[in-house]
């Protein structure tokens, strides 16, 4: 009798355990959550499913899953997070412009960027601290030329571009440049852009840039930033969902690589900060850094309400420096590959630049309205090679609804920027590289035709959009004015379908000759 009772009891316990294990398979987050796979797949949830569908390109896996469920608003669980992936342009615009979607999730990948594993900076924070830091940094960087026309900064960028042209035309002058431009003239991409783009930002930040002899550290820091970009993924990596895996090989290896690369990038920014902090004088403001130090003096370090603190400054600046050195440069490298496939676009840009600018000087932002085809080419490059394929994850701040679906507070929202840049309904022939799509009948740039969202939109709009667009335009125009693009002898055209997806889309490092015209 006793044995039978305990057997029944064990049976009940087993059933309860099975129920507990399998229940998530069928449960959905909320009554009317967007369509998607049935509940949480054990252990990793929808993240595991996405990995199974397309291990290397999670944004493509999400699009395939959306197609399977015939929805552009896909609902799934990423481990414990209810998650929505938006793959429609109109819905994406709506989400990005509604303030209930302005939060950021607390992902371990984001914490790994900070020495003390805290959420700091702009990218991965929300609430009052995010608002305050974003506002302060943008407001005061602006005074030194960030995000607007500023004669002094444009002159410095012009000198920086002349050095890039010199490096590409006449080769390495300094030892560290030999790893970037080989003796036979081939330049490593995206690395060849690191110094120029980083210096353009440093100039705004500190009023100084590194001279050519000193730029070795910029190439090294750029390479570290690329390690983070390539080893992370657009959903936060498996470490964000099972952080304890950092103790288990081979995840521990990935963890160490990402962590070290992040700390190296932070380390560079710390050296810049320390240099100015040593000689800080409250009564004599030299640059943006001094303005921030002044706020820090007013704060009590222990007071959690004051956010002008050292770790906040480091990560806040990394959030600007990091995309400048690794994001915008990668976009340039993607564009160069794209142009190898489209020599007509190169010829057309060259004709336009020859007519408008000639050869005596580099193109400037004043020339931009007349260089409509060059501008359109850059915009088309950003559409077809969407740098940040899933945007940066947002978080729902309060229970809300979206197009008839109910989304609970803390739902993660990913905007499928790559998917919306390839929606046939909007673009007709999204697979074609066609800069003309942004021009009117008179060949003028028609901004109304550019409905792409490479920088997102709304309150979380990329904080570096204008800076990025300006420096990329100037670099593209300078390169087209001075060079033709040549591949290594015997090399095939790059296979654009083989690009890797990390946090951003990256090409493999490749060698390209900028052959003087
Ligand atoms: C081609 C170059 C770039 C592209 C395509 C790009 C794209 C993006 C995207 C898609 C986001 C996320 C928007 C969202 O959350 O919905 C973002 C955020 C951000 N970007 Fe960029 N970006 C680029 C370059 C830059 C540069 C050069 C900087 C700074 C110098 C920068 C600074 C930032 C910052 C600080 C954020 C976080 C904004 C926030 O969360 O409030 N980006 N960017």
From TrEMBL:
Compartment(s): Endoplasmic reticulum membrane; Microsome membrane
GO molecular function, one term: oxidoreductase activity, acting on paired donors, with incorporation or reduction of molecular oxygen, reduced flavin or flavoprotein as one donor, and incorporation of one atom of oxygen
Primary site of residence: endoplasmic reticulum
Any one of the GO BP annotations: xenobiotic metabolic process
GO CC field: endoplasmic reticulum membrane
InterPro entries, A to Z: Cyt_P450, Cyt_P450_CS, Cyt_P450_E_grp-I, Cyt_P450_sf, Cytochrome_P450_fam2
Cofactor field: heme
Origin: domain of life: Eukaryota
CDD domains: CYP15A1-like (cd20651)
One Pfam family matching this protein: p450
Bilayer topology: Peripheral membrane protein
Keywords assigned by UniProt, alphabetized: Endoplasmic reticulum, Heme, Iron, Membrane, Metal-binding, Microsome, Monooxygenase, Oxidoreductase
Protein residues bound to heme: 462
Residue stretches in coiled coil: none
Function, as annotated: May be involved in the metabolism of insect hormones and in the breakdown of synthetic insecticides.
Protein family (similarity comment): Belongs to the cytochrome P450 family.
Protein known as: Cytochrome P450
């Amino acid at each position: 009798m006793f044995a039978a009772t305990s057997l029944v009891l064990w049976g009940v316990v087993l059933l309860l355990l099975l129920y507990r294990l399998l229940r998530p398979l069928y449960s959905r987050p909320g009554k009317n959550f967007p369509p998607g796979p049935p509940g949480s797949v054990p252990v990793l949830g929808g993240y595991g499913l996405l990995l199974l569908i397309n291990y290397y390109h999670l944004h493509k896996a999400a699009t395939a899953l959306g197609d399977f469920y015939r929805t552009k608003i896909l609902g799934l669980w990423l481990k414990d997070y209810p998650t929505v992936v938006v793959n429609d342009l109109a819905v994406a615009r709506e989400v990005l412009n509604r303030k209930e979607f302005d939060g950021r999730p607390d992902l371990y990948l984001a914490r790994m960027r900070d020495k003390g594993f805290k959420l700091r900076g702009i990218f991965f924070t929300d609430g009052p601290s995010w608002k305050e830091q974003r506002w302060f940094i943008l407001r005061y960087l602006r005074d030194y030329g960030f995000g607007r026309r500023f004669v002094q900064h444009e002159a410095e960028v012009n000198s920086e571009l002349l050095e890039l042209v010199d490096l590409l035309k006449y080769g390495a002058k300094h030892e560290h440049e030999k790893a970037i431009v080989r003796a036979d003239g081939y330049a490593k991409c995206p690395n060849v852009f690191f110094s120029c783009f980083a210096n353009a930002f440093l100039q705004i930040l500190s009023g100084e840039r590194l001279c050519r002899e000193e730029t070795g550290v910029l190439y090294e820091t750029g390479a570290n930033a690329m390690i983070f970009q390539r080893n992370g993924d657009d959903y936060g990596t498996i470490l964000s969902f099972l952080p304890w895996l950092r103790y288990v090989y081979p995840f521990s290896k990935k963890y160490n690589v990402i962590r070290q690369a992040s700390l190296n990038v932070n380390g560079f920014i710390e050296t810049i900060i320390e240099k100015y902090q040593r000689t800080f004088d409250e009564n004599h403001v030299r640059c943006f850094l001094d303005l921030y130090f002044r706020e820090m003096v007013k704060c009590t370090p222990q007071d959690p309400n004051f956010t002008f603190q050292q770790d906040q400054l480091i990560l806040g600046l990394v959030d600007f420096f990091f995309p400048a050195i690794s994001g915008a440069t990668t976009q340039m490298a993607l564009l160069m590959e794209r142009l190898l496939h489209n020599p007509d676009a190169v010829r057309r840009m060259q004709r336009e630049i020859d007519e408008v600018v000639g050869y005596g000087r580099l193109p400037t932002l004043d020339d931009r309205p007349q260089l409509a085809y060059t501008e359109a080419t850059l915009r088309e490059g950003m559409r077809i090679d969407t740098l940040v394929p899933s945007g940066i994850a947002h978080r729902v701040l309060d229970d809300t609804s979206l197009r008839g679906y109910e989304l609970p507070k803390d739902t993660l929202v990913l905007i499928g920027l790559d998917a919306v840049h390839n929606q046939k309904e909007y673009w007709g022939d999204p697979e074609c590289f066609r800069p003309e799509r942004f021009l009117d009948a008179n060949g003028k740039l028609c901004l109304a035709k550019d409905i792409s969202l490479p920088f997102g939109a709304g309150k979380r709009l990329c904080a570096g959009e204008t800076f990025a667009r300006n420096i990329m335009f100037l670099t593209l125009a300078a390169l087209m004015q001075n060079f033709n693009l040549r591949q290594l002898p015997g090399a095939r055209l790059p296979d654009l379908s083989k690009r890797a997806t990390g946090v951003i889309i990256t090409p493999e490092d490749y060698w390209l000759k900028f052959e003087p015209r």
